[in-house]
Amino acid sequence: MPVRIVTDSSAGLPQEIVDELDITVCQLHVMDNEDSDTTTSALSALEIAAEYGRQMERGGDEGLVGLHLAKELSSTWSAAVTASAVFPDDKVRVIDSGTAGMVLGAAAMAAAKLAKDGADVDECYEAAQNTIERGKTWVYLSSTDEIRRSGRMSTTTAMISTALLATKPIMALNDGRLELVGRTRTQTKGFIKLVDLVASEAGGKPVFIALQHNDAEEQAEILQDLLEQALPEGSSFILTELNDVVAVHVGAGAIGVSAVYSA
């Protein structure tokens, strides 16, 4: 039986890909609190251990690769590490991803494709890690309100963003932290800046691009068209909605762009 690949819902993998590659997705918790605000919470070590156990049984104890959102963004990673200690012989490998979104999803896809071809747990782990190392994520925000409240950006960036509420900021996810890398006053200028940031890393080689939006499909399609014009031939694209666990932190109108560059 193949090595099992487990990620969490922060990756935002479309269901058809999950089904095709037989990837297991642990659902992070989305809750409404007493103030009518929506919040999220991490998976517990017990929940993850239970899922890992089920998947190890399915895979005939061939091994498992766990891919979870950055430890700087959630305690899910540390819970996964605790859960992995239940299993012997280094059969459960948990990656310190430093990321979220479809870079994480692409890493799960790469590992799952190898697993289906009979690769062992070390080979699957290395493929996932290599994909993450070649990945970058940016987020275009229509508003900074939700992300400031969530605490998911650095203190300095939060202070700058508070002073620039009229702007359309572009954030980069670096080592698990959101940092301000661009600010513009219009969507058009924001998209031009974002395309330049993505394309400047391509080096003339094809790029895998995933665009994830929160109630902004039309705008995401415009951005995809711009990226298709700017990126090398052979680049591939996925356009999908942000799932609830990420959307509650970035607000309506947000668009995430995840890029995995060629080796």
TrEMBL record:
Cross-referenced InterPro entries: DegV, DegV_C, DegV_domain_contain
Pfam families: DegV
Residue ranges of the TM segments: none
Superkingdom, natural source: Bacteria
SUPFAM superfamilies to which the protein is assigned, alphabetical: DAK1/DegV-like
Keyword line: Lipid-binding
Record keyword Hydrolase present: no
Entry protein name: DegV family protein
Organism: Corynebacterium casei LMG S-19264
